[in-house]
Amino acid sequence: MEENRMNVMPRIGEKAPEFKAVTTQGEINFPSDYTGKWKILFSHPADFTPVCTTEFMAFGSMYSEFENLNCQLVGLSVDGLHSHIAWLRTIKEKIDYKGMKDLEIKFPLIDDVSMKVAKLYGMIQPNESETAAVRAVFFVDPENIIRTIMYYPLSLGRNFDEIKRVLVGLQTVDNFGVALPADWRPGEDVIIPPANSCGVAKERVEADEEGMKCYDWFFCTKEISKEKVEEKLGK
């Protein structure tokens, strides 16, 4: 049964699979240790590689921004703990990239030499590599439900503005019971979901909401100010 679970990729809307692991910041139980917080679990192919180094520096430089959004970052690769520690020390002491330097990585990086966690989360994609994890990103909410999944190949670094935008968007969806249009940013109009979709009651959609603009029966928007959105982020 466990072997079958290893071959099934987790899906949006499911409970995040539980695991215990050793990390650069001690042993963790994921996601239960972080219940009540948002979690971003992400994998990278290998320590001491250039694309991964730029990504860790990006996460490290944005650490306080994610912390302010009540979000715990957790990294993973199939390297061992000693390799992780040496690589993170190298980043802090030697790498100066795009103005990012002297960066201390404050979030845990999982030792997954066995690839147990990587396989549990579908991070090993054999047609890409059988010995390295692809660049996966799992957004897990405070109730430990998977809300968004992103996958990138080994050769393509991730867009960290988009990762933060997704987190802000998910919190806005939850806080206001709305949907969000393409390329949405805080302060832009949000979508009022049609009746009986996205869990929104029919009565709410039929109400003449202040500031509501309808393009057709199925497509209505309203304004939520940037200040109102930001006031609720991280809560």
What's this model, at a glance?
This protein is an alpha+beta fold. The protein is 30% helix and 21% strand. It has helices at residues 2-6, 50-61, 63-68, 81-94, 116-120, 160-176, 202-206, 226-232; strands at 19-23, 26-30, 38-43, 71-77, 109-111, 135-140, 146-152, 190-192, 213-216, 219-222.
Tell me what you see in this structure:
The chain has 235 residues and is an alpha+beta fold. The chain folds into 2 domains: 2-160, 3-Layer(aba) Sandwich (Glutaredoxin), CATH 3.40.30; 177-232, no CATH class. Helix content is 30%, strand content 21%. The protein contains 8 helices and 10 strands. It has helices at 2-6, 50-61, 63-68, 81-94, 116-120, 160-176, 202-206, 226-232, and strands at residues 19-23, 26-30, 38-43, 71-77, 109-111, 135-140, 146-152, 190-192, 213-216, 219-222. The strands form 3 sheets. Strands 5-4-3-6-7 form a 5-stranded mixed sheet. β4, α4 and β5 form a beta-alpha-beta unit. The longest helix has 17 residues, at 160-176. The protein is globular and about 60 Å long. Mean pLDDT is 90; it is low at 1-5 and 198-207.
Supply the CATH superfamily name of the largest domain.
Glutaredoxin
**Do you know the CATH topology of the largest domain?**
Glutaredoxin
- Note the run of SSEs as H and E: HEEEHHEHEHEEHEHEEH
Q: Spatial order of the strands in the main sheet?
A: 5-4-3-6-7
Number of domains: 2
User: Structural class, please?
Assistant: alpha+beta
How many beta-strand elements? 10
- Helical element count? 8
Strand content: 15-25%
Shape: globular
Helix content: 25-40%
Radius of gyration: 20 Å
Average pLDDT score: 90
Low-confidence stretches: 1-5, 198-207
CATH architectural designation of the largest domain: 3-Layer(aba) Sandwich
CATH class of the largest domain: Alpha Beta
Q: Distance N terminus to C terminus?
A: 37 Å
Query: What characterizes the major β-sheet?
Result: 5 strands, mixed
